[in-house]
């Protein structure tokens, strides 16, 4: 009997020593597992064990969840007395029965998940010789985000103006919203929880293009997307963007709108709710007076006056330039190169023709080195061209339709 106790104690000590050197879980789910509502949640666990019968409790592994009160509820176990088959526990919530199962070694599967399934789940390896080995995962059930503010397919704006586009989305949990610029390598612009803003101050033509708003609350799903095309209108020498600041003192009532007056012929007047105004079809290199009035519930206040001068017209460039849509780089236009080539050919033809004409006249005029002959030179286009011919005897000048006698 004495030797039996010694062997039993020795076996337990060896089991404890062996268990401490084992990495029990070879696979665990992430700390948070995101699954779409209506989808299938796979809580993937796997473990290493050399002898289940010698090391495991007869009801191990064990799967459980924690309710909203933090109380632990057993979902199911593997029954060592029944060939280690997966058995649903009597404690398993009724809403999970028929939707929960086990795959592979220790993967817990919950089909058609709902928000009620959003709980903390646990897989426990119950050992004979030491404390249980536990692994936990938080299941997050997500709804597909939906945009709550419409974004226009295209947004026209004048160069030099300011722009702010709000993109918002809702879902459970609240999605992350991001603005990106769609070019060869998409560029991050801004982000936020539930909403994000696309802002431009003094926008330029190089900022035109396609911008996309993305919303996501599940890293395992593609985000929902909506796009807008920013169309920047160029301000010419005959256009102007008039900007002003909101009044410091609104008289105790917020500003409703602004009135802008310009002393054109005839005078112009514009009403706007923004703090800027674009006016077109002005005269180049001309000074104009501007008056801006702010209106609240009482009426219009005193005018703020200023003046501006439109630009002088620019000379046309010798070479036409175009803008690369992808990189915003300036590149030479192939049309300009073609024009340059054509002009060059015309110049060469003209020079060769003039040389041939000079040689022809010289042969007629000069005979035997010093003799002069009567010459009649008629230019086909009847233009008053002058041709200078140089001879060894003298210098003669010929004009179209002229007869010189020897």
UniProtKB/TrEMBL annotation:
InterPro entries, sorted: FN3_dom, FN3_sf, Ig-like_dom, Ig-like_dom_sf, Ig-like_fold, Ig_sub, Ig_sub2
Pfam families: fn3, Ig_3
A GO CC annotation given for this chain: membrane
BP terms from Gene Ontology: cell-cell adhesion
Keywords, sorted A to Z: Disulfide bond, Membrane, Repeat, Transmembrane, Transmembrane helix
Domain annotation Ig-like: ranges: 145-231
Protein name in UniProt: Neural cell adhesion molecule L1-like isoform X4
Lineage: Eukaryota, Metazoa, Cnidaria, Anthozoa, Hexacorallia
């Amino acid at each position: 009997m004495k030797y039996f106790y010694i062997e039993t104690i020795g076996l337990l000590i060896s089991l404890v020593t062996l268990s401490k050197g084992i990495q029990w879980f070879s696979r665990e789910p992430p700390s948070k597992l995101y699954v779409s509502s209506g989808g299938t949640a796979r809580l993937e666990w796997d473990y290493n064990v050399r002898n289940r019968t010698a090391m495991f409790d007869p009801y191990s592994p064990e799967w459980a969840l924690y309710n909203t009160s933090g109380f632990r509820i057993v979902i199911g176990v593997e029954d060592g007395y029944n060939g280690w088959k997966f058995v649903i526990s009597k404690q398993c919530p009724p809403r999970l029965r028929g939707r929960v199962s086990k795959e592979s070694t220790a993967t817990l599967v919950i089909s058609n998940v709902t928000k009620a399934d959003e709980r903390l789940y646990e897989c426990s390896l119950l050992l004979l010789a030491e404390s249980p080995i536990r692994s936990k995962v938080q299941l997050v059930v997500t709804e597909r985000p939906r945009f709550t503010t419409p974004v226009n397919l295209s947004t026209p704006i004048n160069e030099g103006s300011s722009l702010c586009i709000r993109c918002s989305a809702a879902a459970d949990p609240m999605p992350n919203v991001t603005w990106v610029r769609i070019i060869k390598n998409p560029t991050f612009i801004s982000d936020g929880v539930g909403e994000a803003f696309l802002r431009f101050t003094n926008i330029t033509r190089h900022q035109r293009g396609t911008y996309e708003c993305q919303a996501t609350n599940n890293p395992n799903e593609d985000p929902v997307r909506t796009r807008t095309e920013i169309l920047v209108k160029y301000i010419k020498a005959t256009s102007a963007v008039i900007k002003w600041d909101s009044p410091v003192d609104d008289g105790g009532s917020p500003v409703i709108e602004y009135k802008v007056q310009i002393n054109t012929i005839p005078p112009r007047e514009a009403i706007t709710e923004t703090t800027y105004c674009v006016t077109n079809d002005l005269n180049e290199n001309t000074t104009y007076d501007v008056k801006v009035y702010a209106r609240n519930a009482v009426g219009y206040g005193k005018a703020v006056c200023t003046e501006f001068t439109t630009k002088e017209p620019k000379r046309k460039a010798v070479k036409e330039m175009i803008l690369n849509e992808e990189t915003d780089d300036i590149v030479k236009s192939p049309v300009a190169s073609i024009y340059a080539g054509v002009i060059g050919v015309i110049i060469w033809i003209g020079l060769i023709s003039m040389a041939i004409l000079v040689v022809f006249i010289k042969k007629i005029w000069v005979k035997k080195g010093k003799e002069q002959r009567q010459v009649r030179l008629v230019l086909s286009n009847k233009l008053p061209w002058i041709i200078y011919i140089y001879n060894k005897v003298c210098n003669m000048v010929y004009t179209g339709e002229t007869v010189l006698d020897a």
